[in-house]
Structures
1.
Amino acid sequence: MIQAGYRLVTDLPEEMRPWRDRPVAWANVSPATGTYHLDSSGVYRYYPTASSEGLDHPVGQIQFGLGCLASYRTETDPARRGLFLVRARAQADRLIDQRVEERGAWWFPYPFAFTHSVHTGVTYQPPWFSGMAQGEAISLFVQLAQVEELSSVDRAAYRAAADAAFASLQLGDDGYPWVTNVDSDGYWWIQEYPANPQGTGLSDYTYNGMVYALLGIYDYYCATGSQAAADLYDAGATTLAAHFPRLRNPKWASFYCDTHRIPAPTYHWHHVELLRQVQWHTGSPDWADRMDRLVDDYPATASGTIRFEPGTHTLYQLDTASSGAWVESKGDRQLASRQVTFAQATQAPAVMRRRIQGRGIYCLIAEGAYGGWWVGESWTAAYLLGVVLPTLYWPGRTVTFPGGGVPVDVCKVAADGTVSSRRTVSFTNPSNAPVSQRAIVNGRAQYLISAGGLTSYWVPASAVTADSGPP
């Protein structure tokens, strides 16, 4: 398997560690109805119909358990904290009870038939296994093994479960069960949907499922220092880096998998968040660069206030949902256009900022004379005020100002878009500056300088060069 040399950063702040960003709210700690809810023993189960018997859903159970652990860490009320831990343990214990032991590893079966509604060839009869579940189970077991409130016996049991789950990711597709393989080009994959049985079809090569599994490898490495874990993470990150051009769908939502290459608007921001974590884990700026490209291709929606600079603007009515959201059957088709002219700068509320299919970034005016009309975003003409979609780098990146006396405008900006300071700087020779984040600031992609004489100033991304090299 091919490795590029990615190395893991273990001293991350607590809030940047895997699964801390998906806590279970107290109101959701005991779900009693719905397609997924708890059974009488507190286990999160899948109920396909209202009258069906609850079924085990490994990824659902694991993610619920990890969310409860995230809440356990921050909850201050002892009773609530205790219940979050009880819920997390119930999911882990159910996985352990239902495990299949094969090939010297533990596997966590899905006990129901499944056919993917969109991806042809992804059809299973029970039991079937998923690399996403195998990797996420490692995170759940490792994190429980680190809970000091538990007895040493229980912690050791969860650590042993993590070891047994990790063993499954060290096995290839030359036996059954299997969830990892090396493709014909030598790249190592964790398959959320492996061909079942092996050799009978093409696996899905799903991107988000692979990265979620890599989070488990990261947790395992931080807990054990395992060189095998470091090597697998390196191989997985190398695979994702090599296939990023196939994941990316320029100026639209990224693809869900490498096999079917179907754009997945509902998963695109998952890809952004997951690549953000890979950048944190590896400290490598190439991941920050990939993440930034995805943010620009299909940004998360935002709302706020549009500023119109003086002049003439073209407004559009587009075929969308009533909220302004994209609808596949409508395709953002243009219905009408009009021009308006403002003698002076003016503002209007915006209910949505998003990528319009086949166009650029547009803002939907919420109310007033132009309510329901869209305007294309341009930092020189019309844009959403303030700091939008901030991306935190860890570690920070380095940007290089051009030499030759080229002037570069920088500014300090408040959250509402108010500019409190402007400067124009120039350098005889190229000059470096550290930056801690990137955001869309008053309609323009900019970096926040984090040290030196320009600390707290934003610099336009188009005016500098950011580091983006591999390890």
2.
Amino acid sequence: MSRVCELTGKGVQSGNNVSHANNKTRRRFLPNLCNVTLISDALGQRYRLRISAHALRSVEHRGGLDAFLMKARDTELSQRARLLKRQIAKKVETEGQTAVSA
């Protein structure tokens, strides 16, 4: 499993450890990934995702998983998240059509 956030695409970065003597050695900065279960309001299901703590705050700020995915770019999302986004968009579209026709 790669160390990449499924929603934001945030991944591993590299840099230097710098000692007091100014010696530089390479290091890796790992994203703060959490295994969380998020609920889709449109689909009425739970989804387990591996996302960064920053992404979790963004999901809550935007008003839930559905709102976050609809606003997110497809290039940032994982394959699974893109599939979920398409399912949500399809469900919202069909609900909108039934509301208009009623």
